[in-house]
Amino acid sequence: xxxxxxxxxxxxxxxxxxxxxxxxxxxxxxxxxxxxxxxxxxxxxxxxxxxxxxxxxxxxxxxxxxxxxxxxxxxxxxxxxxxxxxxxxxxxxxxxxxxxxxxxxxxxxxxxxxxxxxxxxxxxxxxxxxxxxxxxxxxxxxxxxxxxxxxxxxxxxxxxxxxxxxxxxxxxxxxxxxxxxxxxxxxxxxxxxxxxxxxxxxxxxxxxxxxxxxxxxxxxxxxxxxxxxxxxxxxxxxxxxxxxxxxxxxxxxxxxxxxxxxxxxxxxxxxxxxxxxxxxxxxxxxxxxxxxxxxxxxxxxxxxxxxxxxxxxxxxxxx
Length: 319
Hints:
The protein has 7 helices and 16 strands.
């Protein structure tokens, strides 16, 4: 494979399941999220990262609250050359983000910049809602492909879920000041080291610069940007649910020093109390023992935030 498959979601839903069975990745066109909303998301994302560093660091993540800004993210215990801003789809959107009922012991609570116009928060929440709807439509295809009722997976996400959106900025040089670099984990050899995503699905918006690579056999292939497309990849939870019929996709981001770039992944995740176990056909043996999503997410978040032990993987649950 020299490029990931391109699927027209408006006319060719039937091929989507087979593409994911084979590759774990697909590039979706005609997906239903408007160009106007995507354009606004890019504009607001770039405006956020253009804020002075002291303003962004007022929203810094911590070990207790992993939502907000961070400039020293780890992947595979190596520091990524990027800065990020994370926000969660709150369980009770009719309440303020900082309401106690919208606080998660795993993810914390959203942090928004007081210095930004209200359009930033409104745009980001509208985009997260659009990605949620798209993710449900994709999971309907997976349900049918696995021989289940079309809306089988919706039970795991309604009325609330723990999905979150990340704004990524990859600068051309280390974002940390020279006086700080020596006090933290050194940069790895990739802008983002190889990994699989922890949840069910990832919906990725990639700018024209690119840099994303997917593992295909023994090779790494470039995921070339296509204007207006969305890149979809399967995460670890779907691999467990499907009992390895669909496998989470290994990917990384290669360093590019000529120009900065941006990407925006949306991670579709169930409630933390969800116990994920293989959905088996008659006579089929389970390849994984049950795993509680909240515990798995917490372990992965600790590995991203700092060196709090070995990063958890689904191989830890394999029978």
